[in-house]
From TrEMBL:
<dbReference type="InterPro" id="IPR029052">
    <property type="entry name" value="Metallo-depent_PP-like"/>
</dbReference>
<dbReference type="InterPro" id="IPR050126">
    <property type="entry name" value="Ap4A_hydrolase"/>
</dbReference>
<dbReference type="InterPro" id="IPR011152">
    <property type="entry name" value="Pesterase_MJ0912"/>
</dbReference>
<comment type="similarity">
    <text>Belongs to the metallophosphoesterase superfamily. YfcE family.</text>
</comment>
<feature type="domain" description="Calcineurin-like phosphoesterase">
    <location>
        <begin position="4"/>
        <end position="189"/>
    </location>
</feature>
<dbReference type="GO" id="GO:0005737">
    <property type="term" value="C:cytoplasm"/>
</dbReference>
<dbReference type="GO" id="GO:0016791">
    <property type="term" value="F:phosphatase activity"/>
</dbReference>
<dbReference type="Pfam" id="PF12850">
    <property type="entry name" value="Metallophos_2"/>
</dbReference>
<dbReference type="InterPro" id="IPR024654">
    <property type="entry name" value="Calcineurin-like_PHP_lpxH"/>
</dbReference>
<protein>
    <submittedName>
        <fullName>Metallophosphoesterase</fullName>
    </submittedName>
</protein>
Length: 243
């Protein structure tokens, strides 16, 4: 049986990323896919990108990765762009939209937010029609076919649902979880590339990490938007929510 670790939404938090990679390594998993949003929010976008490039076999683009490749008037965005430098920004702009493959007789499609956009946000409590639409293809996807299993990132909220016999899951966030204060990733186990039905397993892993160290790293570099970042890491509550 083959194992794939799927990570997403690191957001420049290398303390959380290193904890997750250590957990993956001690499980003996060597194939890692990343679903984007490597950069932004946290203080170490440059190092996060370098580490992801070193360890991940496949990497796709997230909305923050895309935003960082564009000119911006916002001070925080400019700060993160300056941290990364031109070569890393150019690399972000070259990333693909989706990862698609067969596993245990199921067509798997992984993307950042939806099959239609990097910016379409779909939560587990959204309307059924919106959630089931995530199995459709679009001109951005690699193949014009419905998926049997869909995994994505973006919302920082790990979950799994069975919809009409199809499996929908969100891997949660490594560096900025908004469901509980531990880094999140997924392990998929099955027969990689197999066209015939075989056992398929999806396992959610939560990894504790040193949140105060991650915050101190942001303090040390006088990162903009520091207070909202600290709140999210310590409480797992989205900065846009009122207390």
């Amino acid at each position: 049986m083959d194992s794939i670790a799927i990570i997403s939404d690191i957001h420049g938090n290398i303390t959380a990323l290193e904890a997750v990679l250590a957990d993956i390594q001690q499980r003996g998993i060597t194939r890692i896919f990343c679903l984007g949003d490597i950069v932004g929010k946290g203080p170490n976008s440059d190092l996060a990108l370098d580490i992801v490039k070193e360890h991940c076999e496949l990497i796709i683009m997230g909305n923050w990765d895309d935003l960082m490749t564009r000119e911006s008037e916002y001070t925080a965005a400019k700060w993160h762009q300056q941290v990364m430098g031109k070569a890393r920004l150019d690399y972000l702009g070259s990333l693909s939209f989706s990862i698609e493959f067969m596993m245990s007789g199921k067509y798997i499609r992984l993307f950042h937010a939806s099959p239609r956009s990097l910016y379409e946000r779909v939560q587990p409590w959204d309307d059924y029609d919106k959630r089931i639409s995530l199995f459709e293809s679009s001109e951005l996807c690699a193949e014009p076919k419905q998926a049997d299993v869909v995994g994505y990132g973006d919302i920082h909220n790990a979950y799994l649902q069975n919809l009409e016999g199809k499996i929908l899951f969100n891997v949660g966030s490594v560096g900025n979880p908004l469901d509980l204060t531990q880094a999140s990733y997924v392990i998929m186990e099955g027969e990689y590339g197999a066209l015939s039905l075989a056992p398929l397993n999806i396992q959610f892993i939560r990894v504790p990490y040193d949140i105060e160290l991650a915050i101190q790293q942001a303090v040390d570099v006088d990162m903009p938007m520091l207070e909202p970042y600290m709140k999210e890491l310590r409480t797992a509550k989205y900065r846009g929510l009122k207390d």
